[in-house]
Fold:
Amino acid sequence: MSIFLRAENPRGLTEKEILNALEKSLAGRNLKKVLLIGPDYTRLHSNAGFIINRYYHLLKEHAEVDIMPALGTHRPMTEEEVREMYGDIPYDKFLVHNWREGLLKLGEVPAAFIREITEGLWNESLACEVNEKVVDTAYDLVISVGQVVPHEVIGMANHAKNIFVGCGGADTINKTHMIGAVYGMERMMGKDHTPVRKILDYCWENFLDKNKYLFVLTVTTAPEGKIRTHGLFIGHERDVLDAAVALSQETNIDFLERGIKKCLVYLDPREFKSTWLGNKAIYRTRMAMADGGELIVLAPGVSRFGEDEDVDKLIRKYGYCGRLKVLDLVKENRDLYENLGTAAHLIHSSSDGRFKITYAVKNLTKEEVEGVHFAYADYEKIAAEYEIDKLKPGWNWVKGEEVYFIPNPALGLWIDKNRF
Structure:
């Protein structure tokens, strides 16, 4: 039986309401060993940290509990990040996912299926690989906790994505990301039943025993950094995703009356330390940006491009040079062809010349930023010029100039309704 909770109060569900739902989801289960899968620090405002902490304390007296953040290709969480996000759970309870090692191939998504759902844009099969812990028979139950929110690769994040991408291997990650890029992110963002979602649904329907996997999905916002959980959806079937998507489309998409000429997006330095993560500022605003406009990414914590050294080198080598150029580079360069997830990231992170992208940084040089085809600005100078501490979310006037301010791009999607 699925659990559907939608907050009646605009301030969101109470901790007591959430805890009651978690207790209900465990009722009648005889569990000896449980794996909790949750997001990493880049989903700090998902409220998954609180939920996994509560599950741990509900289970620890009678079951062995492990926690594995769904890192995908991201860097492992530090002990400090784990403590801040997940609270008092002992650090030695956390497992580290490596997208290149410790994987098990569950099956293949056929080329014919992918060709059909991508309208002929992709003609290769895809291996479904996951961390071997995800299918370890020692676990009685795997609980996957995460946030449903608009997403550039799949349309709406979470559910099967948490398992097959967050805990997935290179072929699954690389090809799903590239399929999304080739199909076109602006055709998918904020929508369900996209080609990448259909691929992961295929994996979910064909390669796992549903009864062993419990999804716990949140829909949240975080005005002024304070989490509001507007919905909580728990169950074994896809109906929990359907319900969460519907609520997130209401809650996390901002339709604007006109395009943005000047947009400032702030990246919290605790969450965003690379352009691999920080370029959500580009993905989530591109459908709201006016032609010829400027997107200024305020990135005080960004000090690198990729989340690992190999990806960082590729980004520095090829840069954010536009969709058509990247597709040519993939054909011509084996290192990029073998790292399609990086190629997809390069495509996602370019405006293709439609608007200017400026990175305002502290920890990268002008040469580094311009070397990947972004414009450079000094963070302190931009912060002072636009008085960012005084900006409110949305439209502002600064010294006679209209600017649109977004304090956290990870929590939404912004669209010029005339372009949608």
Q: What stands out?
A: Residues 49 and 86 are 4 Å apart (CA to CA).
